[in-house]
Each structure stands twice: as C-alpha cells, then as structure tokens.
Write a structure and sequence with these properties.
The chain is an all-alpha fold and 167 residues long. The protein has one domain: Four Helix Bundle (Hemerythrin (Met), subunit A) (Up-down Bundle). Helices cover 74% and strands 0% of the residues. The protein is built from seven helices and no strands. Helix 3 runs parallel beside helix 4 and helix 4 packs antiparallel against helix 7. The protein is elongated. The structure holds fe (ii) ion (2 copies). The site of one fe (ii) ion (FE2) has 5 residues, from helix 5 and helix 7.
C-alpha cells in the first residue's frame, strides 16, 4: 500500500494499540489482500488524520483478507471488534480536533459520526449473535461508508483545519 511520508514515520500502534497484534496475526497467515488502496484522493492534507484513516483502511483490509481466506470466526470477530474500536477512537480524535479549532460544521459532522458508529456497531452485534455472516456485500458496505465519509465530510473540514491549526 502506498503511504504518505507521514504514515511511514509514525507509529499508529501507539494510537491504536491493537494494530500491532492484528497485523501480526495476518502476517503470520501470509495473506494481505487489499479491499482498499490508499491514494492521494483520500488525503485530507492533515498528516495525523491521514495516518488514522490509513489505519482504518488496513483494519478493513485485514478483515477482508481473513474473510477471503476463510479464517476462523474467532479471528474475524476480533478483527471486526478492532475495526469498531478504531472507528470510535478515530471519530473521538477527529471531534476533539474540530472542537479545538471551533469548526463551524462540528455538530453536523459529529452527528454523521454517531450514525456511522451506530451502523457499524449494529452490524458487529448481529455478526456476534450469529445473525449475519461476513460477506463481500457487508465488506463493500463498510468500504463505501468509510471512503464516502472521508471524501465528503472529512474533506469539508480540511480547509478550515489547515487555517486553524489542524496538523
Ligand atoms: Fe475521518
Ligand atoms: Fe469524520
């Protein structure tokens, strides 16, 4: 996956402690299939935010790779839980940044985060209860909500953040 220079030098496992564990599991299996590939079109121009988005991409790719390989439910459950946890952490971090910079679109953006979190948590809960299986359809849905949110709402705050101290 092509990464911006900022991503290469940062240690996302500090921000997302489970990342190192997750990646170890997948490297052990030797499977790393990309559902999502990072490119400049996703960049909001704020390195710390791009780094977190890349972690979310990787988290979704890990889940996709595990599903394609037919890994045990226990692993896919862990990966889905990680994705939910990363999503919550990222949204919290983004909201703190927007609030500190007095971003005018903060409340609308936070409402979108609440909706997205509810959707992904609902899928995760249904998966945990055995009501749904992981499928290409579900993974595509997760990919689409993530990329659409980044390219629409997250890109909207970028100019304000750059002017008001987002890094
Ligand atoms: Fe974001
Ligand atoms: Fe966002």
């Amino acid at each position: 996956m092509a990464r911006p220079a900022s991503a290469q030098s940062s240690d996302n496992s500090t921000f997302f402690p489970m990342l190192r564990y997750t990646n170890c599991l997948l490297y052990e299996t030797g499977v790393k299939m990309a559902l999502l590939t990072w490119s400049d079109k996703f960049s909001v121009g704020i390195p710390s935010v791009d780094d977190q988005h890349i972690v979310l991409f990787e988290s979704l790719n890990d889940l996709h790779a595990a599903m394609m390989k037919g890994n045990a439910q226990s692993l896919t459950k862990t990966l889905l839980r990680n994705l939910v946890a990363y999503t919550r952490d990222h949204f919290k971090s983004e909201e703190a940044m927007m609030s500190a910079a007095h971003y005018p679109g903060f409340l609308a953006h936070r409402t979108k985060h609440i909706e997205l979190t509810r959707q992904v948590e609902d899928y995760a809960a249904r998966f945990e209860r055995g009501e749904i299986m992981l499928s290409v359809h579900l993974l595509n849905f997760l990919r689409d909500w993530l990329t659409t949110h980044i390219q629409v709402e997250d890109h909207q705050y970028a100019p304000w953040m750059k002017e008001h101290g987002g890094r």
